[in-house]
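In this section we walk through a basic example: taking a raw amino acid sequence and producing a predicted 3D structure, encoded as discrete structure tokens. The instruction is simple. Fold the sequence below.
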Amino acid sequence: MRFARPQGWLVLSVTVLAMAAASVWAVTGSVTSTVGAPAILTHGQGSYLLQSPVAGQVTAVLAKQGQRLPAGAPVVKVRTPEGEAVVRTVDAGRVSALAATVGQIVQTGANVAAVEKVAHADDPLYATVYVPAENAASIPAHASVDLTVQSVPSQEYGVLHGEVKSVDRTAQSAQQIAAFLGDQQLGEQFTRKGRPVAVTVELEKSASTESGYEWSTADGPPFALTSMTLATGSIRLAEQRPVDWLLP
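The resulting token sequence is shown next.
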């Protein structure tokens, strides 16, 4: 009879203990993962493209980019064979882009401006994160979100904190995103890798920061945030047991 050497028993014991510990961890432990996706800060109500109801030549631009206007406010004047027509806002909001210039010839239905729906100047900002559709089901309610804002140096001021408010379970097309944001280029940009799902994130507020929102640093940036600012969102997904990865 051959007996195992003490070194062999030691190696076998360590191996058995390691396998037992791994088995326990696989059943009782948990792993948290995140998904990163492009995002944009808005006031949460979306935008609309203001279109000219008539064809003619633009004779005056009566609004400025960034200006807040009530519903029915004049934006541009268009000269037509029947006389001069005024294109007015449909809903109250902020002019996020002007597409019309004086002297330009516009056709009926041509876009003359993009207006973000904002009822009051102090309406809070939200973030919309465009997540790949295959990850939508893994996003739990009230999941925490970190947002790296494009206009804020993250090395100096950190990331913006938020919480998932809602998840749209229907994948959106470039046209749907463009209609919500009032920007066709953004619609194409956010669907470059496929049709995503829109996740609305409520930003965590803070009375101690200049921006009014909570950051990973104490003070955050020394300026206010503006809507239509691009960002990158990192959403914490639901925790999973390692053993679930092995089960069908």
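Looking at the output, two observations stand out. The CA atoms of residues 68 and 94 lie 4 Å apart. The first strand starts at residue 34 and ends at 42. In the next section we compare this with other chains.
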